[in-house]
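User: Run a structure prediction on this.
Assistant: Running it now.
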Amino acid sequence: MQFTQTFVLADFLDTAISLAGAFVLGTVIGAERQYRQRTAGLRTNVLVCVGAAGFVDLAMNLGGNDRAVQVISYVVSGIGFLGAGVIMKEGTNVRGLNTAATLWSSAAVGACAGADRLAQGALLTVFILAGNTLLRPLVNAINRIPLDEQATEAIHEVRVRALSDAPELREAVTEALEDARYPVADMEVEVAGDGSAELVATLTSASVQPDELDAVVERLSRLPGVSHATWESSTSE
């Protein structure tokens, strides 16, 4: 029986300490995620952390440090696929990036524990918690800063809603924007079921003068057949 030949009490205790440390540190990370009701909560982070520790510890016992380094590289790529599963795209919004990054970091903590670097794993856990909690007020403060259309590279769109999709209206919108020195990079038309249409003109310029675009939109709203005109900006990254 191979078990009686390969079992070494000292190695077993070392593995137990590594896995227990990964369990505790994963619980600390997962508890914060569970409190905020994230997709990957307490159990997921614990399993990722303990699983990474188990793989690295097994590799060290079987092949030493060199083998452990190889396994760590596989853990990093493997967790990348797992993190992709929690990322969801809803229109132009992407959700779950922070959750995926936390799972990736949990695997790093587990790898530290499996490599008998519990102190480094604990330090990494502190930084993960700091990133998910202490940086939150700073993120909220930055998000409250109004977007400066003159200084920020962004995508600018002029939207014109009309009673129908008329070629002459497209030309009028294009000419009005070019006269204001805002050439059109792309023009799309969205036709509704009642026959009305919305023209979406994407500007070439990455920065604009809000007052100038407001004046152009005001002129466009007075064109025959136009019921509404506006413009909006979105970040390019």
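The first strand starts at residue 88 and ends at 90.
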